[in-house]
């Protein structure tokens, strides 16, 4: 399976070739550095290692702007530097491996979650409680035992994914992360009250202090104004424009689906934008989070003995 970023760069090449009105044969004639039609085809589909110099020559010949050429070069560099955990095929399905690779190279991530906290925003204890719950739900003892063996590795991967939100925080190339959470997420005490309180505090801190993380709550009354196209969806953009977009749809008890077709993605992006407009503002979202946090903190605050 081609690396998702390689597919994105390939889509960029094809887009600019199409803008020139060239067939692949004509493109090779104009840019002999590409070698042959089969070689160009593999570059455009991401099925062959893309040499940065050749990519730049091709884009220059197609009249791409300096910004586009620089973006392609940065994408190839990010792909080369992708951490090893970004494609953990030993413990996750192919769609999830593709998702992790895209996360590691994206500039913008937008997500909507109707029933749970997004993986990149989970605390360690919250994530572990979720994974152990999945392990306990396996139908056989052998299945439960095998799943538990993978929990530690999967937990490490989930926490390493979160480091993407820190690595470039504050720079021009920072990952911008936008999340809309249904109010029902605040009601789900995964792992028990103490773990739930810790998780809500974590969300509050991220939303209040991190300039590249935007968390909005969709209140119940707004949920009734329109239905999301999917209960758990994530849009990933490795570039400023639409080239190379992908959308991941999480499905319960399965590996999920990674979409790369532009027409399909457009529908889900419109849904994400609609949800964002109906969600509470930053201040309102923080106020609602605080409403849920206060009683939980009071529950765990040491009781003062009567004088």
TrEMBL record:
Listed InterPro entries: Cro/C1-type_HTH (IPR001387), DUF5753 (IPR043917)
Coiled-coil residues: none
Pfam families in UniProt: DUF5753 (PF19054), HTH_31 (PF13560)
Domain DUF5753: 98-291
Record-given protein name: Helix-turn-helix domain-containing protein
Species: Streptomyces lasalocidi
């Amino acid at each position: 399976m081609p690396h998702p970023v390689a597919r994105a760069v390939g889509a960029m090449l094809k887009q600019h070739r199409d803008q020139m009105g060239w067939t692949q044969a004509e493109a090779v004639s104009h840019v002999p550095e590409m070698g042959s039609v089969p070689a160009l085809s593999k570059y455009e589909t991401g099925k062959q290692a893309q040499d940065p110099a050749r990519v730049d020559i091709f884009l220059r010949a197609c009249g791409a702007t300096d910004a586009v050429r620089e973006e392609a070069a940065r994408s190839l560099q990010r792909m080369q530097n992708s951490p090893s955990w970004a494609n953990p095929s030993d413990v996750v399905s192919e769609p999830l491996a593709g998702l992790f690779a895209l996360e590691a190279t994206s500039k913008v991530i937008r997500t909507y979650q109707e029933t749970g906290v997004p993986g990149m925003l989970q605390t360690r204890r919250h994530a572990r409680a979720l994974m152990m719950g999945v392990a306990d739900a396996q139908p056989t003892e052998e299945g439960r035992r095998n799943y538990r063996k993978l929990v530690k590795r999967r937990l490490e991967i989930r926490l390493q994914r979160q480091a993407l939100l820190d690595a470039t925080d504050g720079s021009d190339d920072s990952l911008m992360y936008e999340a809309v959470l249904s109010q029902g997420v605040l009601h789900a005490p995964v792992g028990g009250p103490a773990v739930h309180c810790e998780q809500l505090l974590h969300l509050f801190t991220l939303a209040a202090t991190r300039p590249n993380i935007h968390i909005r709550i969709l209140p119940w009354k707004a949920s009734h104004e329109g239905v999301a196209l999917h209960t758990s969806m994530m849009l990933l953009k490795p570039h400023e424009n639409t080239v190379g977009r992908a959308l991941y749809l999480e499905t319960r008890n399965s590996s999920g689906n990674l979409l790369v077709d532009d027409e399909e993605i457009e529908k889900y992006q419109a849904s994400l934008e609609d949800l964002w407009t109906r969600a509470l503002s930053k201040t309102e979202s923080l106020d609602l989070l605080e409403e849920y946090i206060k009683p939980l903190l009071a529950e765990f605050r040491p009781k003062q003995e009567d004088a």
